[in-house]
Design brief:
The complex is a heterodimer of chains A (about 110) and B (about 110). Chain A has strands at about 5, 10-15, 20-25, 30-40, 40-50, 55, 65-70, 75-80, 90-95, 105, 110-114. In chain A, strands 2, 4, 5, 6, 9, 10 and 11 form a seven-stranded mixed beta sheet that branches. With about 110 residues, chain A is an all-beta fold. In chain A, a hairpin with a 3-residue loop joins β4 (about 30-40) and β5. By secondary structure, chain B is mostly beta strands. Chain B is built from no helices and twelve strands. In chain B, strands 2, 5, 6, 10, 11 and 12 form a six-stranded mixed beta sheet that branches. In chain B, strands 3-9-8-7 form a four-stranded antiparallel beta sheet, with no helix packed on it. Chain B has a two-stranded antiparallel sheet with strand order 1-4. Chain B starts with a strand and ends with a strand. Classes of the chains: A mainly beta (about 110), B mainly beta (about 110). Chains A and B meet through β5, β9 and β10 of A and β6 of B.
């Protein structure tokens, strides 16, 4: 089991550029989550999918953020245009999709927007 | 709504000291409770969990007991090691897939 795989590990970009973060969940997991972690706000849930369908996107900060899950083995989080305040570590997590199941996290993407 | 409150850090201890990190929760119904650990540069890892009142979760010498009467799930370890230095997160699940996390508590253990 390779675990949740995120890419890239680090991303440095200039303000205004488009950023795409990628995630491959654990095979067989039905739920996928995107979190953002900063010193100021801690760990924030941005969006989660169940069976590839977005269930709760209330944490997506604004229209510059979008997430897709075209199939069970891949998801993207896109920021367009990026801003310096988007700098954070973005985590993807997956779970079997049964209420109360633990989440399995990837190692995160550290995004720096200059 | 559901929420988790955990003690602010950092918690600084000497090796072999006793550890307690407090966690209390607010939830409707009967949530599942979790402790996660995050080592530097890594994602969160499940440390232990409990799914019903009076359950005790344990792993790697850490323990936490689900106390419904006090709505608490405090993390304890009898003798910490330098390698336990990390950030610890308390979390709850209200029966859906979504986890509500606390703000995290940084533990620093010195030799």
């Amino acid at each position: 089991d390779a675990g949740v795989i995120q890419s890239p590990r680090h991303e440095v970009t200039e303000m205004g550029q488009e950023v795409t973060l990628r995630c491959k969940p654990i095979s067989g997991h039905n739920s996928l989550f995107w979190y953002r972690q900063t010193m100021m706000r801690g760990l924030e849930l941005l969006i989660y999918f169940n069976n590839n369908v977005p269930i709760d996107d209330s944490g997506m900060p604004e229209d510059r953020f979008s997430a897709k899950m075209p199939n069970a083995s891949f998801s993207t989080l896109k920021i367009q245009p990026s801003e310096p305040r988007d700098s954070a570590v973005y985590f993807c997590a997956s779970s079997p999709g049964q209420g109360g199941s633990p989440l399995h996290f990837g190692n995160g993407t550290r995004l720096t927007v200059t | 709504g559901n929420s988790v409150t955990q003690m602010e850090g950092p918690v600084t201890l000497s090796e072999e000291a006793f550890l307690t990190i407090n966690c209390t929760y607010t939830a409707t119904g009967y949530p599942s409770l979790f402790w996660y650990v995050q080592y530097p540069g890594e994602g969160l890892q499940l440390l232990l969990k409990a799914t019903k009142a009076d359950d005790k979760g344990s792993n790697k010498g850490f323990e936490a007991t689900y106390r419904k009467e006090t709505t608490s799930f405090h993390l304890e370890k009898g003798s910490v090691q330098v390698s336990d230095s990390a950030v610890y997160f308390c979390a709850l699940s209200g029966g859906t897939d979504k986890l509500i996390f606390g703000t995290g508590t940084r533990l620093q253990v010195f030799p």
